[in-house]
Amino acid sequence: MDARVLNEVNYPATSWGPPQTVSGGDNPVDVSVENVVRTFGVTPALHGVSLEIESGELVALLGPSGSGKTTLLRILAGLDIPTAGRVLFGGEDALKLTVQQRNVGLVFQNYALFRHLTVLDNIGFGLRVRPWSRRPSRKEIRRRALELLDLVQLSGLEKRYPSQLSGGQRQRVAFARALAIEPRVLLLDEPFGALDAKVRRDLRRWLLEIHNKTGHTTVFVTHDQEEALELADRVVVMSEGRIEQIGTPDQVYDAPNSPFVFSFIGESSVLPVRVEQGKIWLDESPLDLPVGDTPNGPAKLFLRPHDVEVVDHAPGAISGVVSVLRRHAGLRRVDLEVGAERNRIEIELPADLSLNLARTVAFRPRRFRLYPVASQPPRS
Amino acid sequence: MTDAAIAPLLVSESRGSLVTTEKLPVRVILITVAVVFLVLFLLLPLAAVFVEAFRAGIGAYVAAITELDALAAIRLTLLVAAIAVPANIVFGLAASWVIAKFEFKGKSVLNTLIDLPFSVSPVISGLIYVLLFGAQGYFGPYLQSHGIQIIFALPGIVLATIFVTFPFVARELVPLMQEQGTQEEEAALSLGASGWKTFFKVTLPNIRWALLYGVVLCNARAMGEFGAVSVVSGHIRGKTNTMPLHVEILYNEYSFAAAFAVASLLALLALITLVIKIGLEWRYADQIAASRRH
Amino acid sequence: MAVAQAAAARGLELKRPSAIPGFGLALGFTLTYLSLIVLIPLAALVLKSATLGFEGFWNIVTGARTLAALRLSFVTSLVAATINAVFGVIIAWVLVRYRFPGRRLLDAFVDLPFALPTAVAGIALTALYAPNGWIGSLLAPLGIKVAYTPLGITIALIFIGLPFVVRTVQPVLEELDRELEEASATLGANRRQTVFRVMLPSLLPAILTGFALALARAVGEYGSVIFIAGNLPFISEIAPLLIIIRLEEFSYPQAAAIGTAMLLISFGILLFVHLVQAWQRRRFGHD
């Protein structure tokens, strides 16, 4: 769907004059991050990160704490300046612009609503602080704010104060406030982190609706991989200041390109193996699994616990001794001790399979990934 | 590693300070204004005390503070504090015990009553005792006929001082003890300790720094109280003059240097109080009440 | 305790049952102490004023000299508290938000008026602002007289009240969420707009509370003012001094009346503080 058409349906043409920003209009823009580095003193938070975001895309920056995702978001917002690198909005240098000039909408995890202002005044804030030449009339601001209130489905609450709203409502007001300035890019910093699980799920759905309606280029930061996979057009998996992988949710789930991505997204079990003579070796026996183009040497076999099938001691399967059995809804979680070193892995099997402790189970992963064990020194 | 062509001059080393502070010229102006204001209104008077105290030379200074009436005033001040402060400690402990460890109706009234002296003018604090025990007070005739002197004597001074200073200890203890809750005491009791043992071995150690803090403030105010004591004391030289009153007498007699000399002792006490106060706040901030309200 | 049990049996919970001992003893001691030290003496004050009857009370309080004294105390306190509110916020701001050499020392110093005996402050200020004093001598050629005028009183009250504002505003300023400022900036507000539209409004309850506390303290202040005030009736005589004069004349009811009037003013200010805090709790929500 053409984002611009949708825009006009929901955002009636404004008559406030061109924004002060470098590129004009209320069209969403594409975002370009080129080799951005950010060090704090001697501690590097970002190691030269590059990223292309298309206009209208909903992108998730996913990673554990310390991965640099929030730092990157703040650099995009203008709340931080990179030590090196470039950031472009719609082809123009965004780093030359101050926070005020960048026209980004930022939504915080803890809402950051102005508690002394009503909901309506909060939403209209960005319009009221514009310089005279660009400031709409009071009536226009009010009309606009009410419209946005409607968009976020909170009509009727305009006179309330933030303290009188629930967490989910506050976050929606924060959204409306960010949308009011017609941002070129919408940046969300763990927007649902402070909310209950149920509210979080509802708001995820709601965010997708809003995004489809308004079509802003949106970047959101999260450590919740479920959220990222559910919402994003593309996921940027980050770890320790670097981008591990960029891809669609399917791509990062089904084809993770590193052990980190594999284990961070979805569940995983790992087995240390060797690649030799074109086969995968577990202890002294070869596995009946394709090697692909993995080089010889030690490697790690990653598999998803539920992506296995039990076989009857066929050679080439992975076999292990049951050490723990756990019931898990309609399935059974089984801890197996595999191989001479009794490596522990976890797999998921149908509950109706008869299993006892100390029994031997053989299985074959339906899908798996093989990553060579890095023999280089750790990345600096 | 750094791309020299790009590194902006504004790159900050700390996170998040980019938009949350003012431009440098504004900061400089504000700091200057604040410093000038503080120096003018706070520092200069303090300096004046010491400068004026030594204006007539060290000899005069020493003479002023060792003169008989001055010594009597010092003795009386110390005596009053020695009575008032311990009394207020006991009160503070009792009141905070009751407020913090129990739930009962009327608790907020009690809290308000404890804060009362802070809202009452020192002169009124003395006035009320004169109205009770003065010559024409409610108990005046009774006291006279029994030869008991409260006003214009030590008891009156002690009473007025207690009134003015009793909130200090309680106010430091109540919020802290409320924060600490009753769990440790309940644990001790369940282990078989008696009430007093629990109090001395469990409660007291938890509040000792806040207690010290309150005592220091209470003492400073007790020794320095002027208005309330002035009303009840009668200004009898050598007998019912505390140090602040003695300062007043000397000043009114135009013995300026002597007045400042005695005042300098009080100022020194104030500085020591400040030092202890700051020291306690730095080291034991978490064990001193959540409220910093005075 | 039997009383508590009986009360509880009737459905009245005066006190929640507790295993912790000492309630009776501690409460008894506390209430006795308070009664003896506070309640009974204050009752005496009110009673004594009551003996005048309402009309008598009113006449005394609105008598020309009394009125002048009350007005002087109140007006100078108001001016001093206002000045303290403005500069107190600046000082709190500077101490919380900036780093500069000597900041910690300055911070410690703000508490000086709390610790310094009022009489010492009184003579020191007089020494500074008297016509031959350090500052007074600088102002005299300009025709500005400070000591022995209401201006001097105001300056003494500024000294007394400053820590109230600073110490009330400081913790609130420290807790102020930086994200609010960042949000404001991303919405397009420049620094001045952020400070005046977002931060100061959030500080308003604390500023008002500090202002009111400084005001309450100043209205009743005696020791630091009595030396620098001229003590001329109708011109530079503060209300507490008038009370003392009446006492020395043995006009106890009159003294009591003025005292009660001052007490009412103080309570009015306290009530204001409570209302501000209740408003704040309602508007901003519990934190």
Features:
heterotrimer; B: 294 residues; mainly alpha; 71% helix; disordered N terminus; C: 287 residues; 76% helix
Shape of chain B: globular
Share of residues in strands of chain A: 25-35%
Helix and strand sequence of chain B: HHHHHHHHHHHH
Query: Can you tell me the residue ranges of chain B where pLDDT is under 50 for at least 5 consecutive residues?
Result: 1-13
- The overall pLDDT of chain B, averaged over residues, is 87
- What gap, in angstroms, lies between the N and C termini of chain A? 44 Å
Spans where pLDDT lies below 50 across 5 or more residues of chain A: 1-25
| Strand element count of chain A | 20
In DSSP terms (H or I, runs of 4 or more residues), the helix count of chain A works out at: 10
- Could you estimate the helical fraction of the residues of chain A in percent? 25-40%
Taking the sheet with the most strands of chain B, its summary is:
none
Into which percent range does the helicity of residues of chain B fall?
A: over 70%
Please indicate the percent range of residues of chain B in DSSP E strands (runs of 2 or more): under 5%
What is the number of beta strands of chain B? 0
Largest sheet of chain A: 6 strands, mixed
Give a quick precis of the structure:
Chain B is mainly alpha-helical and 294 residues long.
General description of the model:
The complex is a heterotrimer of chains A (380), B (294) and C (287). Chain A has 380 residues and is α+β, with helices and mostly antiparallel strands. Chain A has helices at 3-10, 69-77, 99-102, 119-128, 138-151, 167-180, 197-214, 225-231, 249-254, 259-264, and strands at residues 31-40, 43-53, 58-62, 84-89, 92-93, 104-107, 185-189, 217-222, 234-239, 242-247, 269-276, 279-282, 285-287, 297-303, 308-311, 318-328, 331-338, 343-350, 360-365, 368-372. A six-stranded mixed β-sheet of chain A has the order 6-7-8-3-9-10, with helices on both faces. In chain A, strands 13-12-11-14-20 form a five-stranded antiparallel β-sheet. Chain A has a five-stranded antiparallel β-sheet with strand order 15-19-16-17-18, with no helix packed on it. Chain B has 294 residues and is an all-alpha fold. In chain B, α3 packs antiparallel against α9 (195-224) and α8 packs antiparallel against α9. Chain B is globular and about 65 Å long. The model of chain B is unreliable at 1-13 (pLDDT under 50). In chain C, α4 (64-97) runs parallel beside α9 (150-175) and α4 runs antiparallel to α11 (191-219). Chains in contact: A-B, A-C, B-C. Chains B and C meet through α1, α3, α4, α5 and α7 of B and α2, α4, α5, α6 and α7 of C.
